[in-house]
Amino acid sequence: KILNHLLYLVNETKNFEELINILVEKxxxxxxxxxxxxxxxxxxxxxxxxxxxxxxxGPDAFKKLIxxxxxxxxxxxxxxxxxxxTLKKNPEEVDASQFRSPPHVNGENELQxxxxxDNILDKNEVYSMTEVPRGYMLIVNIYKFDYNYxxxxxxxxxxxxxxxxxxGEFGFKVEEAHDVGAEDFMIFIKTFCDDKKPKNxxxxxxxxxxxxxxxxxxxxxxxxxxxxxxxxxxxxRTVSSDWVVDQFNTQNCPALAGKPKIIIFTACRGDTxxxxxxIKADAVRLSSYPITSDLLxxxxxxxxxxxxxxxxGTFMVQEFVKVLRxxxxxxxxxxxxQEVTANLKKRFRxxxxxMIVNFTLLGFNKKFFFKRVTSEEYEQILKM
Length: 384
What we know:
Death Domain, Fas; Rossmann fold; 2 domains; six-stranded mixed β-sheet; hydrolase; thiol protease
């Protein structure tokens, strides 16, 4: 089935990076195979190589491909392959009602979903996400470090690429900072927060190595880690996660007063793997705001533990994007993060350890739902 429709599959497959990540997760490909695919020139050659390899990957590979296509936004291709019908060159011949998940911004109409929050919750219980743009996405990625102070973060460029795709799909304007030192990073954040221009929301992705937090002790000598993590910048200097959070409070960032602010740190919080433990189991509109409110902070792991990454990016970003694209119309941000945690637990390996997503609500007292943009809204954002 695959080789008979190879040309069509290569031409019509979208979200290649997400698709191959899912196939790795389903153990269709190993790291060596992924490197072979990624070594090809351009997406067309990569897809051609990938699809040619799948028939050689065992009796379950076809079913896993169908599942991966569904999970990566290629439901039309999955349906045609599964039903063994002739694949048609004209994408308009694919019945839009067959799609289970909303299409990406490519001129198609956005699906209406009976689970949309507007239909089931009071407007005072949900952050408004209908404005254009929906908000801002700040992406800070430290890939390399001066004087080889830290190892390069190979794969992090894949995180940046897929996050920019997601920002476009969900109507966020992107501002980026790459391989900056501590001072330039602080200027980047403060410049955004000092801007008085009205903003609807912000999502910050801060991706780098993290420095082990201070080990503290209670009165009885019990040791524990500070929840703060020091983020290492290109020049080897660090910036505290607490400093970053403080910049987005109402006092320092008044343009986002009463608006949702989500800060996602993808950095280690120590160097200890979480190996787990085996046990036996039993069968009204406000005119003033608190200094810190409407803020959600997210870490990929618990204090003292490590966060994992491979050549395809960080596990946290991979899972977040996968779940977001699949569940955006049904789940709010907290439910999405809970599913991300469940998925990361399934990726546990004895040689590594668990990753437990750790998030904190600071006056974040409404539901936050992502909402995809229409093609018209997308064009409007591009002109801003």
